[in-house]
From TrEMBL:
<keyword id="KW-0489">Methyltransferase</keyword>
<keyword id="KW-0949">S-adenosyl-L-methionine</keyword>
<dbReference type="Pfam" id="PF22528">
    <property type="entry name" value="PRMT_C"/>
</dbReference>
<feature type="compositionally biased region" description="Basic and acidic residues">
    <location>
        <begin position="19"/>
        <end position="33"/>
    </location>
</feature>
<dbReference type="InterPro" id="IPR025799">
    <property type="entry name" value="Arg_MeTrfase"/>
</dbReference>
<protein>
    <recommendedName>
        <fullName>Protein arginine N-methyltransferase 6</fullName>
        <ecNumber>2.1.1.319</ecNumber>
    </recommendedName>
</protein>
<feature type="domain" description="Protein arginine N-methyltransferase">
    <location>
        <begin position="192"/>
        <end position="363"/>
    </location>
</feature>
<dbReference type="InterPro" id="IPR055135">
    <property type="entry name" value="PRMT_dom"/>
</dbReference>
<feature type="region of interest" description="Disordered">
    <location>
        <begin position="1"/>
        <end position="33"/>
    </location>
</feature>
<keyword id="KW-0808">Transferase</keyword>
<dbReference type="InterPro" id="IPR029063">
    <property type="entry name" value="SAM-dependent_MTases_sf"/>
</dbReference>
Length: 374
């Protein structure tokens, strides 16, 4: 994987975005400048409040791809958990604490925000004891989640930690820095990030909709067709949406490996995307990013793979889509190359910013700056 050249990123205040070859929209820039600035503590509080709504957990727990990797990932490593005290930071409903109790943990200690205490009602002492036997006891603490460690009164020595990852790559508001929920529950695991050019079939239908109105209703409003790309893809927002393997135009490129037990994305992460050749003729609408992580499978067991690839069963993470300002036509063996840089937004360190420099075929190199919307 080639190393990227250092590029000077344009200044901005969190709402970064735009294409390097286009003139910035003055109204949008003025709106960004008028946006009230929040402190890090305020951003942290908004982040944690995002987990206090039960609908968020209703989305995560039914994600069988996710849960069917987490549960065996814990149970197969029972030897490392038996009779141990495990601290579950960011416990939410407490389901992973119960999995730890099922694996033989003596005391799953749960840490969550004050506003999330109601989520674990019914999954406390009784549920843990039913899962792990009478010797299993939960310890719950709640504190000010704006403070590292979440505060609280738990003073017992813990033998293992299950805590949210600190990597800015899930790309899903309001939890943009949580790639997956297992930073140290995967002590030997690596998070791998992939990128690939895509042709979004649904987007293509929307872009061509206005030219089809006349044949249905006898009214020609195809003049709006030129305006549609500005509304649908002319923005600089990172779009969280699922695509299928059929939408991928070329072989995916792995552009980063992150060791979760030691590193997060507090600083810039850049990588070159080597040239990849397109499979066939199609309109190229942008790029998709996704991640994959491996959990240790336990003694004599194969590692467990959690993938959010469009070639695998869908997850609640979906993929992160970076749309170009206008489609680019590609054909068999069209070369696509470039550089991608991930870094925290200036305004909100929990939001991701992506600087994409790309070249398609013989076209000139372009740069577009993406950000997650609040």
């Amino acid at each position: 994987m080639s190393q990227p050249k250092k590029r000077k990123l344009e200044s901005g205040s969190g709402g970064e975005g735009g294409e390097g070859t286009k003139e910035e929209d003055g109204a949008e820039r003025e709106a960004v400048l008028e946006r009230p600035r929040r402190t890090k503590r305020e951003w942290d509080q908004l982040y944690y409040e995002g987990y206090s709504d039960v609908s968020v957990h209703e989305e995560m727990i039914p994600d069988r791809v996710r849960t069917y990797v987490y549960r065996p990932g814990i149970l197969r490593n029972w030897a490392a958990l038996r009779s141990k005290t495990v601290l579950d930071v960011g416990a939410g409903t407490g389901i992973l604490s119960i999995f730890c109790a099922q694996a033989g943990a003596r005391r799953p200690a749960r840490v969550r925000c004050r506003g999330q205490r109601h989520l674990a009602t019914g999954s406390g002492t009784g549920a843990v004891q039913r899962a792990g036997g009478p010797g299993a006891r939960p310890a719950g603490t709640g504190g000010d989640c704006g403070v590292a460690g979440a505060g609280g009164c738990h003073r017992e020595r813990v033998d293992g930690i299950r805590t949210p990852a600190r990597v800015h790559a899930e790309l899903r508001p309001p939890r943009a820095n949580q790639v997956a929920e297992g930073r140290r529950s995967s002590p030997a695991g690596l998070r791998e990030l992939f990128i690939a050019p895509i042709s979004d079939q649904m987007l293509e239908w929307h872009l061509g909709f206005w030219s089809q109105v006349k044949q249905h209703y006898g009214v020609d409003i195809s003049c709006r067709e030129g305006f549609a790309p500005r509304c649908l893809v002319g923005h600089s927002e990172i779009v969280v949406q699922g695509v299928s393997g059929e939408d991928v135009l070329a072989r995916p490129q792995r552009f980063a490996q992150l060791e979760l037990s030691r590193a997060g994305l507090e600083q810039e992460l850049g990588a070159g995307v080597g040239g990849c050749s397109c499979y066939g003729w199609a309109p190229g609408h942008g790029f998709a990013i996704w991640f994959q992580v491996m959990f240790p499978g336990g003694e004599s067991e194969k590692p467990l793979v959690l993938s959010t690839s469009p070639f695998h069963p869908a997850t609640h993470w979906k993929q992160a889509l970076l749309y170009l300002n206008e489609p680019v036509q590609v054909e068999q063996d069209t070369d696509v190359s470039g550089e991608i840089t991930l870094l925290p937004s200036r305004d909100n360190p929990r939001r991701l910013r992506v600087l994409l420099c790309y070249k398609v075929g013989d076209q000139e190199e372009k740069t577009k700056d993406f950000a997650l919307e609040d």
